[in-house]
Amino acid sequence: MIRCLSYSQGEIVDIEPNIISEKINNKNLLWVDLENPNDFEIKILSESFRFHPLTIEDCLHRKQRSKIEDYQNYYFIVMNVFKGRKLEKEFINSEIFIFVSKTYVVTVHWSKMELIDVIYKKATVTTNIFERGIDFLLYSIMDGVIDDYFPVVDEIGEKIDEIEEGIFKKDDNVVYNKIFTLKKNMLKLRKIITAQREILNTFLRHDFTLIKEENRLYFMDIYDHIMRLFDLIDTYYDLLTGTLDLYMSSISNRMNEIMKTLTIITTIMMPLTLITGIYGMNFKNMPELNTEYGYFVTLAFMGLIALWEILYFKKKKWL
Amino acid sequence: MIRCLSYSQGEIVDIEPNIISEKINNKNLLWVDLENPNDFEIKILSESFRFHPLTIEDCLHRKQRSKIEDYQNYYFIVMNVFKGRKLEKEFINSEIFIFVSKTYVVTVHWSKMELIDVIYKKATVTTNIFERGIDFLLYSIMDGVIDDYFPVVDEIGEKIDEIEEGIFKKDDNVVYNKIFTLKKNMLKLRKIITAQREILNTFLRHDFTLIKEENRLYFMDIYDHIMRLFDLIDTYYDLLTGTLDLYMSSISNRMNEIMKTLTIITTIMMPLTLITGIYGMNFKNMPELNTEYGYFVTLAFMGLIALWEILYFKKKKWL
Amino acid sequence: MIRCLSYSQGEIVDIEPNIISEKINNKNLLWVDLENPNDFEIKILSESFRFHPLTIEDCLHRKQRSKIEDYQNYYFIVMNVFKGRKLEKEFINSEIFIFVSKTYVVTVHWSKMELIDVIYKKATVTTNIFERGIDFLLYSIMDGVIDDYFPVVDEIGEKIDEIEEGIFKKDDNVVYNKIFTLKKNMLKLRKIITAQREILNTFLRHDFTLIKEENRLYFMDIYDHIMRLFDLIDTYYDLLTGTLDLYMSSISNRMNEIMKTLTIITTIMMPLTLITGIYGMNFKNMPELNTEYGYFVTLAFMGLIALWEILYFKKKKWL
Amino acid sequence: MIRCLSYSQGEIVDIEPNIISEKINNKNLLWVDLENPNDFEIKILSESFRFHPLTIEDCLHRKQRSKIEDYQNYYFIVMNVFKGRKLEKEFINSEIFIFVSKTYVVTVHWSKMELIDVIYKKATVTTNIFERGIDFLLYSIMDGVIDDYFPVVDEIGEKIDEIEEGIFKKDDNVVYNKIFTLKKNMLKLRKIITAQREILNTFLRHDFTLIKEENRLYFMDIYDHIMRLFDLIDTYYDLLTGTLDLYMSSISNRMNEIMKTLTIITTIMMPLTLITGIYGMNFKNMPELNTEYGYFVTLAFMGLIALWEILYFKKKKWL
Amino acid sequence: MIRCLSYSQGEIVDIEPNIISEKINNKNLLWVDLENPNDFEIKILSESFRFHPLTIEDCLHRKQRSKIEDYQNYYFIVMNVFKGRKLEKEFINSEIFIFVSKTYVVTVHWSKMELIDVIYKKATVTTNIFERGIDFLLYSIMDGVIDDYFPVVDEIGEKIDEIEEGIFKKDDNVVYNKIFTLKKNMLKLRKIITAQREILNTFLRHDFTLIKEENRLYFMDIYDHIMRLFDLIDTYYDLLTGTLDLYMSSISNRMNEIMKTLTIITTIMMPLTLITGIYGMNFKNMPELNTEYGYFVTLAFMGLIALWEILYFKKKKWL
After folding, report:
1. Which pTM value belongs to this model?
2. Are B154 and B122 in a shared domain?
3. Which end is more exposed in chain D, N or C (fewer Cβ atoms within 10 Å of the end residue's Cβ)?
4. Keywords on this record (chains A, B, C, D, E) (predicted)?
5. End position of a domain, from candidates C251, C277, C294
6. Same domain, A18 and A51
7. CB C279 to CB E282 under 8 A?
């Protein structure tokens, strides 16, 4: 699907793809959005815009990392977009490919993106965005991409709290498994954010002329958001490592508890059993056996031993 | 709540908010403090001072990280302020937002801050602060913010000592739990201090004109304090990791102790029990049973075995 | 084996080694490929091309790390080429040695390389490659080398998934062993990619004149591929460390399970055995023995004890 | 206590504090040493030397980190001095505060320092030090401070060897405890050395005019010593971490040994006990009981079982 | 022992120490080698060459780290030389001290060094070395020093393979001990190589005039060798850490195995023993005891229980 907006002298027009080339030459401001483009629509990239074959190839081959490349008269930007908010499973992300020059923005993506739809609608309705220039349009898109990461990161924070609680409650259902999946997703997320930070770094360099000085502040704002994402992910990652230690130590503690039970029972029962064994022997001459109260004395003696041991364990704080 | 101080030619005046704009134009030195401002007071930021909408938005949305941003004719600074000294629970911090130009300082915060009140009072009473310039006022505020972290960090040190002692005393009440909460707080604290160090780095660059050369030394002093905080937190963090190892090793040691007890008891009791078992068998023809002293000899023999084992364990240092 | 291609004015000729010197002086574009060269063919490097003895020595001694060296009128590049796709065993790589100036590329390798054969064939058939210049030929070779690493890295990803699954299935056949071998290979791979990234860094510096501005983009593309490899390897390495933790925790969990079984059995059986021991003693005067239902009462009592213990363990979630 | 040395035209004079100001103006070389100064002596710093209040405050508040600060006409240096050589307890250090300009050195310290006394004596006796300039005097002091760290670091090395040996000898008295205390001290020491390295870095910058080119080499020598300290501490720290692993693995090994003993005894004794249990049953019809050699055959059989098990364990290398 | 070679106009002469000063002034190329020098020979350094006292002191005090120092008219280089190839014990290294200017090289070492002898012999026999200049002589020495490290590093690789194999073979003789000693040596080696890399970094800076442009390539070659050493040591160090994990996990696995054996035996034997206990009680009224086949039924029942348990453990994969 292809959508084109042209802006010139305060007027926004929804144009047909076939007149794109003409608009480019007229120096109109232009936003072309390609959602899941077919072969014909892809051709517009090479024929109307004359983008470098390498970049078009990049658009076709997905699984790109975020980057920015300078092609003299335009920049080619890839941004990873978070998609689907289920942290239980493996984390999925898609890409948005952005071509941007001083007069146009071309966005290519292979799945419907709500954030693009929202901005597109807004750009159609008011002239607010185009008025401030092509760089402000770019800002709106990038800001949307970055802000979409916050709910994910917040959810990660909640997940960690959940895991931590689970450990204290000794609720054992595959805790480590959860930690591991979360770690996997955070590693992925961290790589994505790192790559996107590099893009912003390029933008904020003072020799980057695409961005007007008055709009620079907006990009600084995105940068600030990315840094906050970074801080959060870093902190959460360290916390996650902490919960793992917590989990391992809780396993060790439980082991200790189990061993203590075993040891206490064994240590109390074994000597008693030995005594019964002794008086169960069949020797002819065992004087104790024939005494009147031997049995009761023995039972009492066994009781004393047990008591003494229990007191000993109490003292050792095993009970 | 809004408070405004105006300084001009050695005189400090408490002014009304509605004449702020006028004072700005007159190049008077000005400190405007907004504590938990209402919508009307917030408007002063945009209308009298004409601050950038992005910065005002930042003031409204809390949970910012410390940063400094250059808006040509003023700087926008966010500083995290430590709040509430309970380390047991999760660590809480609030923000102070500072707008600073060559002639005014505007501080915005959403809760009462003692450190601001102290400086405000001092600035009202003596001309000491304003006399040395707006940058000295800024220094006073920042110094207060940073110095508030020292008691927290000192408390962390004491907590670690406490935990360490608890481990040696084998006092088991949720030690790891404590270590984990402390770690969490230190991670957070570290991020905050790192961000604030960056602000000071910006201040101390020689091309930073807001600060007069004679006041530079004061900011170097803050920097030095931050570095000390850093050193302390780093060291404590490493120590905390050390106590965790200590704790794990103490668990292992206790496990060893428990296992030893179990093994010693089992190893001594089992052979004795076997012997009693043997003489408890009902075979017709068991010559030992009919000897006069068989029972006593057997008891003595069992005693010898036990003794031999005890000596063996002594030698092996298990006892 | 030696192969030489000469290109001049749109024509590609397969030339004899003995006229190489002549072609060099005529400023023809030249590609000389030496596959497993004999002593005579090696001599061409020193005599026709007058390469520095140190570089020729490097070609003869294998096990080089990737590097680029500037010899004023030519560059000497070593690249590690992945060879053989069996990750189970230790990872093997060979080298390709490339001498490149503005007019020639000389490639030396000690084993047949499919990627060279493919490019050679392509260069013979169409003028596409030579037309764009010697630097494009270099790009084609380097791109082939780098792209050969992707299947390996993908395979590593699959291996990790396999190992992870094996841990959850409690399939114990030498899991750690596999993790260890994989780690070994990844360490090696990482070193190789790091060294190759440095080469690309040198290429992309703006003062590197060998590459024409129009072909620079292609080398940026290679750089981008390397960065992707890097990201993947880094992520996989962290994941692998994660699986190791997972494995260790699964061992600990199994240990816990075993200990629980032991403790439950012991704790239930021992008191019962003690009771049977008591009534197995041979005291003359044991009133219970002579009661009519003593035996059955005792059995019932033992049953109750066992039941009580089972309930206790259920409550403690050990069962 | 205050001591002042004045040097001028080859003559060294012990002067009174009250003529310090005069000597400063006369451009005599001057060394003023304040040991545990009283309020009156502190006043000299502010009144005669006119040092900045911030630096004087630093002198009064101890627990400073090593640093160098540039106050236009003099430098303020803080150096941590090692004090007391008992590594068992927590590591103590004090500070020496140095004010240095082209014509004077002022040293302030709160406890008697042998290294200062030594240099003071030397400076009184010969003109060797003052002749080479104020910077050489500074070098002498700093060199003394740094060299004092070597015996500590050497002692750490010996301690580690001691701990390591203790582990192999299975000498258990609080080993981990020792490792932990040592780690604590090394962390502290590392911070100190790092801060001092930064001072030297400042000194060796070529735009640092306080030091004459001919004396620069001496400061390079100090730098070299610091680097050696660094190397040693780093290596020892890594070794210490290694000994911790060694200790943990030795605990695991001992646990294994204990468990083996337990398992062997249990595995041998239990089946034998079962057999005696069987022939201890009171069934009327148990044919074996009435055979002539049943008892002896049973004993022999039990012996065989035990033997077979022992051989089995030998094969499994548990014995 | 002192040896001096003088080179001038294609002629190499073995000269006497007493004419060194003269040769220095004549601008002859000169190599003076001091092996284990006596006091008289040391004096040559200060009197003929007028080297700085600090450097001569460095020569006398051994245990230096590799470094390069610029003394205006000469450079002072310390290089650590590997000595003795026994990795079992602690790693020993000695130093070679090199003074180099544009016209002479002075080497000082305290033990016989084969690599020096080899180069000295070569320099005596052919003019190859001196012809290419003093810097080539320096290269020859440094190259020899670095190349001496390769056999050590290769040996480390073999040791690691050996340790790894030992773990799989469950060959227990002090494995961790070996890992620890190896780690210690690698730490030391790594520090040495790092320091030597820094020297080469200084050499390869373009403003380093001692080295002629045509000989620069040779030093790049040494640098390349050092980088290879680095890569190898890094990889081996990571591998060693891996083997440690492997070892710990093998201990855990063995523990698991032991615990399993214990649990299986206990779990099978205890219930059987309980049954024999029951029928060993002396109650008057136990109907089963008087039945004809009670004994055999009981034995069969016990057999069934044992069988059922074994099947259960098989299912749980404990057997």
Report:
1. 0.81
2. yes
3. N
4. Cell membrane, Ion transport, Magnesium, Membrane, Transmembrane, Transmembrane helix, Transport
5. C251
6. yes
7. yes
